[in-house]
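Deliverable D5.2: sample structural annotation.
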Amino acid sequence: MSGNDFFALTPLLLLAGSSVLIMLLIAVKLSHRVIQLSSLLLFTVAFSSLFYIQKLLPYHIDPLLVIDGFSVFVMGLIIFSSLVVNILSYIYFEEKEESPKEYYVLLFLCTLGACVLTVSKHFISLFLGLEVLTVGLYALIAYLRVRHHNIEAGIKYLVLAAFSSAFLLFGMALIYLQTGSMEFSMIARNLTSFQSLSPLFLTGLGMVLVGVGFKLAVVPFHMWTADVYQGAPAPVTAFIATASKGGVFAVLFRFFIMIDGFRFKVVMLILICIAVASMIIGNLLAVQQKNVKRILAYSSIAHLGYLLVAFIPGSMMSIKAVSFYLMAYFITTLTAFGIVTVLSNKETDAEDIESYKALFWQHPVLACIFSSALLSLAGIPLTVGFVGKFYILAAGLQAGFWVIALILVVSSVIGLYYYLRIITTMFAGQKSILSEGKKANPIFYMVSIIALSALSLLIIWFGVYPSGAMDFMGYFKLK
């Protein structure tokens, strides 16, 4: 590898090195506070390094990786999400029975795996990144051993993730058998030599979609989502909903762009059915829930369906719409799960809707922050979620997909019900039954509130002034 290769890989190398450094700090028995602050500093350094590799873009490290504008943007979202999760994790884990120090090592490794996915242009790097991400999540989901819901969620994720990896590997093998290559660009080149696509290749592509579908939790591969979201620690749930899914969606998008998978009518029909089912079923299942984490779980299924509406056209507008909606979804979901994290206590997470009753009268700032996140998820104007849905509709309508665009609008109306139900609960009644918060660590409690307030301001800022972000994303090209 050349010096430029190492320079281009700086963010990944920093994440890998940080996990080793945190292990060394744990070995010398430093406190949880020192470990958390060190992790926060290292995440900040890794995020800052993304700005220093801009002049190299696009940069290929053949045959496995490509660093371009799109991958750096998604890496930035993933590392930023991990940074926010790191901030929220201190007040969540400080009072728990388990030692939380190793948690930060796993968080670095999962972030590394998600970032490797975003820069992958080869099945080998895709699978390695996916396994680094997934294996770390096994432990993170089941980290609180004394809660039986955590162990149950960890086992469910373990079984279904292994099942999906088997589908993914077998699909990769079939595509390799047909095209003789595992590099995305070579697969595309070899496909042009065939007069027609063989059933073998389409079967392999279908199995890859099944494997990726489980990771994204789209319908009909969504069975694990609600149980895992409810059982996992609240900060881990935030990571799964954002960084984990963002990395997988980014590599799927790159794969389809590079092989021009949008010309396969059968595959596109399947993706349209998945998008429609995810939007409708995700929202309908969320309406029936009384648990906030389960509501957000089924909501995430619907939002992945929205993303597929922008994904399916495969145009330049799709790249901008997907990038903006990923940013909107990351910021909003981190804010929502951040409120759940801050309001959780030593014994249980703040996940029952009734526990949010009259929250505004006891914690007005938290209630307003949570309301901004829920309104953004619902796609209400003057929030970043509304602008994101607008661009998704524009991408779909520009390509002539009127039916799925209409279904997006109708399903979003259904989603309004359960988001507004939580908001009205927070403003109803006179006295909240939630605890006062993490008074044992008032400084870190305030830092968490400040971080969530900043995210809430971003929700409003990008909802009112989206043009700067969209102009920036206009330069993205998948190489």
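Annotation notes: The chain has a mean pLDDT of 86. Residues 264-479 form one domain.
The annotation will be released with the project's public dataset once the embargo ends.
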